[in-house]
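ping. complex inputs:
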Amino acid sequence: MSSQDIPEENLPAEQVDEHGHGAVALADETNPFADPGLPPHEHRIQDIDERAAKRSERVVAMLFTLSMLATVGFIASYVAIPRDKSIFVFPLGHISALNFALGMTLGVALFAIGAGAVHWARTLMSDVEIADQRHPIEAEPEVKAKVLADFKEGAKESALGRRKLIRNTMFGALALFPLSGVMLLRDLGPLPGTKLRHTLWSKGKLLVNMNTNEPLRASDVAVGSLTFAKPEGLEEHDEDFQLQIAKAALMIVRLQPENIKDKRELAWSHEGIVAYSKICTHVGCPISLYEQQTHHVLCPCHQSTFDLSDGARVIFGPAGHALPQLRIGVNEQGYLEALGDFEEPVGPAFWERG
Ligand code: FES
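pong. complex structure:
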């Protein structure tokens, strides 16, 4: 039953406004931006019918009593049931009778307490909505003036202005102290130096398809396909394979040359075939998703998106730099080859960028 179903004369007087609604402020019709206030309060049957309230009270008392009985049952089971006795319980099969009894009684005891408390709160405790008005966060001018005066008084009493030696050495100590934290950074290991600046790519090194382990011909790369490549000579059983592939992995894509907007990109490609680092410049996840229509590649980690038709610049997401491009060409046999190493660090490489 809702308050709409209850005759107004049955509503508690303190919860009815002059319009017969619950005691809440309604929106000011002359001002559409006024606080609309709370919706009219809906009274529960227990609020207006003492017999219903008594029924709820009995249900709550019954649940609490059930909890007490279950607790007694728990203790009795613990004392009375032998540890080696087993019983058959569908669908668990044969299990320890003691464990079963303890679990059941404890579960019922806890459930009954929770259910009783919830029923009590939902049916008998006050559920009148209360608006708690917010107050301005900014302090009153007199409070601010007092805080400022107290601060000045404190500074005067500490004699910081007069005792310049103490003041200056204190500021020096506070400024230098964080340096000890910086020194601890050394424990993170040796600095990478320029290791990320160099990869296995060098002039004349063939691009090898990572799936087939065969050198890539220009004719193997179809428009719209995405191929992953590694430098020739790098094999999975190599000791430093993971380290090297993490720097040298390439994405190979063939674009229509007229779709390439960036002039340098066009000059570094071969008949529209472009080679970019596969390592995201955000935090180094491998990029794996290619959208053929838009020429966008997407990093699955945090959704950085790069436009391969425009120098692999970042068009969305947290990556801060375009993907580094590798200059490629073809050798006399028609195989794709590198024309040198990357000219900028791959991956995030924050410390190596200017
Ligand atoms: S690592 Fe690629 S978007 Fe974060």
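The pocket of FE2/S2 (inorganic) cluster is lined by residues 280, 282-285, 299, 301-302, 304, 317-319 (CB under 6 Å).
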